[in-house]
UniProtKB/TrEMBL annotation, chain A:
Species the sequence originates in: Commensalibacter oyaizuii
Protein name: MoaD/ThiS family protein
Domain of life per record: Bacteria
Pfam families: ThiS
Gene3D superfamilies: 3.10.20.30
Automatic annotation (TrEMBL), chain B:
Top-level division of the source organism's lineage: Bacteria
Gene3D superfamilies linked to this entry: Molybdopterin biosynthesis MoaE subunit (3.90.1170.40)
SUPFAM superfamilies: Molybdopterin synthase subunit MoaE
Pathway: Cofactor biosynthesis; molybdopterin biosynthesis
Protein name: Molybdopterin synthase catalytic subunit
Record keywords: Molybdenum cofactor biosynthesis
Organism (species): Commensalibacter oyaizuii
Catalytic activity reported: 2 [molybdopterin-synthase sulfur-carrier protein]-C-terminal-Gly-aminoethanethioate + cyclic pyranopterin phosphate + H2O = molybdopterin + 2 [molybdopterin-synthase sulfur-carrier protein]-C-terminal Gly-Gly + 2 H(+)
Amino acid sequence: MIKIYYFGFLKEILSIEEEQIEWSEGNSETLLTLLRSRSSFWAESLSEQNIFRIAINKKIIYQTTPIIPGDEVAILPPVTGG
Amino acid sequence: MFWVKIQKASFDDEIPKLDQQIQQNNCGALVSFKGIVRGYDEQEPLSYLYLEHFPEVTEQEIKRILQGAQEYWTIHSAIVIHRIGKLNVGENIVLVMVSASHRKAAFEASQFIMDYLKTEAPFWKKEFFQDGTSRWVKAKETDIEQKKRWQVS
């Protein structure tokens, strides 16, 4: 299992703040592919332009990174700070 | 002195004390920037903003931005206070204070910090308008262009 958190408008349009999914092995890209395969709406919502970064265990990653069972993954939409 | 604080409360009362603290190292220049919630977005009158962040990660990312500023300019101190939650029009939203020996470093480092806060720090703003509608603010191309002038990743 892994836990996934959603932020900002992604949390709202997908109507989900957090969830747990079965996970054996893979990386940040395979996770996005899996989530996008849920429906065309998920695919569109999680399109490249709607994702700023992925964080694994509260560390932002800058390239494709392995995810292992027990990890907590956050999906961050483009930021609008300051 | 380099630190980051994220809070719900206003920071106006903290400014005089911070102003003193940040000058203790005999600086020659102190730049402070305060961002305020504007009363409109384009033509639409705003009622309030709601700001969400990613606890711990947002702090880490802002510290990384401050480290970036230290790598490019000789600065004595840099502090950031950023507010979250519900913020009414006219309320303060962000404070950046930078002290240095010389004004150029203080000015440029504070601009660098703001440009990176806008585009790299995990904050998400939702606008609530006076007509009862609301929407999440989209990342602005102009902010991304502003950041590019520093030519660092």
